[in-house]
Amino acid sequence: MISSKEKVLGILFPNSYDKVVPELTNLRSMASIPFASRYRIVDFVLSAMSHAGIDDIFILPNKNYNSLTDHLGSGREWDLVRKQGGLHIFPPYSTNASGFYNSRVEALAGIIDFLRRQKEEYILMADTNIACNYDFTDMIETHKASGADITIAYTTEEFPDCITRSETNDRGFYYCFEMDGSRITNILINLHNKGEHNFSHNVYILKRELLIDLINTGFLRGANSFERDILIPRLNELKVCGYEVKQYCARISDIKSYFDENMKLLDPKNLDALFAGASVYTKIRDDNPTSYHSCCKVSNIMAADGCSIRGEVENSILFRGVHVLEGAVVKNCILMQDTVVGQNAKLEYVITDKNVTISEGKELKGDADYPVYIDKRRTV
Amino acid sequence: MGKEMIAMLLAGGQGSRLYALTEKLAKPAVPFGGKYRIIDFPLSNCVNSDIDTVGILTQYQPLVLNEYIGNGQPWDLDRVYGGVHVLPPYQKAKGSDWYKGTANAIYQNISFIDRYDPKYVIILSGDQICKQDYSEFLAFHKAKNAEFSVSVMEVPWEDASRFGLMVADENDRITEFQEKPKNPKSNLASMGIYIFNWDILRKYLIDDENNPESSNDFGNDIIPSLLRDNRRMYAYHFSGYWKDVGTIPSLWEANMEVLHPEESGINLFDTNWKIFSRNSGYTGHTVAAGAVLDHTLITDGCRIAGKIKHSVLFAGVTVEAGAEIEDAVIMGGSVIKAGAKVKHCIVAENVTVGENAVVGAMPTETEKGVATIGNGVVIGAGAIVGPNAMVRDDVKEGETV
Q1: Which end of chain A is more exposed for a tag (fewer CB within 10 A), N or C?
Q2: How far apart are CA A17 and CA A257, in angstroms?
Q3: What mean pLDDT, rounded, does chain A reach?
């Protein structure tokens, strides 16, 4: 827990990587993508903040945030209903002069007056494309001890296929660090080289006054990207350090990685690693327990409450309220909330979004490299 | 502004016939149906029936119950005016008393009820499994212009003498009350759920308290007094699922009935009448390759690798590969190790059943019982717990109980 004298303000950007999974973000933000059978991806970073004693959090969406606001409500499930602080969602705000914002810098410039009024000494800001049980207390302590101006979380990892697979730069920026000890000496954007890199999580800790200053000067000079236009030109002048995240991370970079990161949780080692330590909070739906009927056959699955299983389910992730009827066969699938798989239907490598109905006897088959995705509320 | 009706929920019962399960918690806090506790049923009925003010009268081992209820948010009972209030006995200027009986418990909280100035008060019991719409019951009470109504169930005549019975005329007006009679004149059993006009109840509670002969109980004292005074008393026929889960066999049976919603009538899957509960906070459950699930309820946090038939598992239960479970109720956080056989029994919370241990047995013609393992008990590897055993202390490796 962080001492109350030097409180930390949390800021989340729920839309920053929307473009990498256009299928899932057509009707929602990256932050509210369903993950791991009963969570939304934002639950992980939000719970980690809450566990670290960060109880004043700003959320800065810029579009498609209906499902996010519905999910977060007042923030009660994350223990974020506070008289002082709590959860604040800032819907996009525009003056005639500025128009809606498109970047991190513009988003922060839009709330600069609020940032000035806050009392916290530090700001921790993060995107919502990674599910990880961060230890923010440790990260903040490390930041303070290092004397850095800015600390950025990263993992040293083999560059994910999905990044090198992508041929264009228009799906969002990825940042890698060249480092000297813990100090970041260079930030590379959208590297395509295979191999191990220090891959940024876009989780930043810095003093509130410094952020206000950086945004003010940056905005006036037409800065757009916080990393490209503000950080990179100042790497000599500011001490920018990396903080290596040791915890298990699931990064969503395209629909295939979404599928793989869910499936990886079927391995108990990964599941225990992701949920190690403090629990992850999410919105409660008060479903009944899941019912496995006599005629069912299940193997290697993860499921939430409220499901009813009468068919055969293998290597799959089932969200709340999924019904698999008699004779249906579901293999290597992700079935989101309230999906109904009709009698004798067969699904393989399929992702169904919420409230999808697969009619009796239908057969759909994707591939491990290319899972079939079915839109929210569709009937096949 | 006064409330139309508030609820007073009697939750002080020790539940002594549940032995090992209620050593450290009150009966209403006993887990039920995979992710609920008994008290979730009356509380959920209240919110689903538009009652937003509930007083919970506690006395025996209230710790778990108090923590579970908290501010009432899981049931939507965190309200600015009203909401849920836990009411333990308290010290007064003239001294302090435990709750002497059901009526005395309400008597001691007259000032709580007065604060809401209700027209009606419904008295509920915290040890029953029942889904009931109290607003329909209230509509009946009003339509009959009653001063007192009691919810009754028709029971088989041969069982009638086990219950408090209401004898009623063709208009449902109660003419006589028989408490566990040898020769029943009626088969309408009282469910222990009453609606009173608050002015009437208030008066009778005060009169009853002033009567030194009284046992301060609704069944023994208040209802007979009302009858003597020829008050307008009516019996409301309820025909849904209702079960007093005060004994180990009835608690086990009710859990098994949850597996057969159509036959038994206890449907936890009805989205229009949800039963709310405090969430466990676990992840989704997993079922490993090689596990066999047959007619079983599983909830969050379970890790299943064994073979499970016709059972109810609560949150966070681990069943290792090679374990076999049948007709069992396994409460939260328990671990069933490889090769263990757990049958026809109730295993309470945070129990460990060691490798190759045997707990309970399927009933035979000569021996039939529901084995019960108390909270936190460790059953050693290879130990055997017989079908009628009630285990409160750890069982050593290889031992037979």
Answers
A1: N
A2: 13
A3: 91
Asked if A8 and A2 count as a contact pair (C-beta separation under 8 A), the reply is yes
Rounded to the nearest angstrom, the minimum Cα separation between A296 and chain B is 7
Task: Kindly tell me if the per-residue pLDDT of B363 is higher than 70.
Answer: yes
- Helices A136-146 and A42-51, packing angle to 10 deg: 60
Above 70 in pLDDT, residue B254?
Answer: yes
CA distance B79 to chain A (A): 15
Judge whether residue A262 has pLDDT over 60. Answer: yes
Give yes or no for residue A167 having a pLDDT over 80.
no
Residue located via tokens 């994350």: A78
Test A286 with B303 for CB contact under 8 angstroms. Answer: no
Of A271, A281, A292, the CB nearest to B298: A292
The Cβ-side half-sphere exposure at B207, using a 13 Å CA radius, reads 14
Within 10 angstroms of residue A165's Cβ, the number of other Cβ atoms is: 13
Contact predicate B301/B287, CB 8 Å: no
Residue A46 neighbours by CB under 8 Å, 6+ apart? A12, A57, A72, A78, A80, A281
Distance from C-alpha of A331 to C-alpha of B223, rounded to nearest angstrom:
61
Contact B122, B194 (CB under 8 A): yes
Q: What's the rounded Cα separation, in Å, for the pair B131 and B49?
A: 11
Contact B283 A37 (CB under 8 A): yes
Name, in order, each residue with C-beta under 8 angstroms of B60's C-beta and a sequence gap of 6 or more: B12, B13, B14, B15, B26, B27
Q: Indicate if the pLDDT at residue A1 is higher than 80.
A: no
State the amino acid at position B251 in one-letter form.
Answer: L
- Cα radius of gyration rounded to whole Å, chain A: 21
- Annotate A206-252 with DSSP letters as a single string: EEHHHHHHHHHHHHHTT---IIIIIIGGGTTTS-EEEEE--S-EEE-
Place of tokens 């994707």: A366
Q: Is pLDDT at B149 greater than 80 in this prediction? A: yes
Q: Could you read off the pLDDT of A316-374 as tens digits, one per residue? A: 999 999 999 999 999 999 999 999 999 999 999 999 999 999 999 999 999 998 999 99
**A275: which chain B residues are within 8 Å (Cβ-Cβ)?**
283
Write out the H or E segment, with its range, that includes residue B352.
strand B352-353
Amino acid (1-letter code) at residue A127: D
Mean pLDDT within B82-111:
86
Name the nearest CA neighbour of A250 among A284, A280, A285: A280
Binding-face residues of A in 139-178 toward B, CB within 8 A: none
Judged by CB atoms closer than 8 Å, whether chains meet at B275 and A288 is answered as: yes
Distance from C-alpha of A229 to C-alpha of A232, rounded to nearest angstrom: 6
Beta strands (DSSP E) in A83-215 are: 86-89, 122-127, 130-132, 150-158, 175-180, 183-189, 196-207
Residues of A in contact with B295 (CB under 8 A): 292-294
Quick one: tokens of A46?
Answer: 């939000």
- Its ipTM equals 0.90
Residues 277-336 of A with CB under 8 A from B: 279-281, 284, 286, 288-294, 296, 298-305, 308-309, 317-318
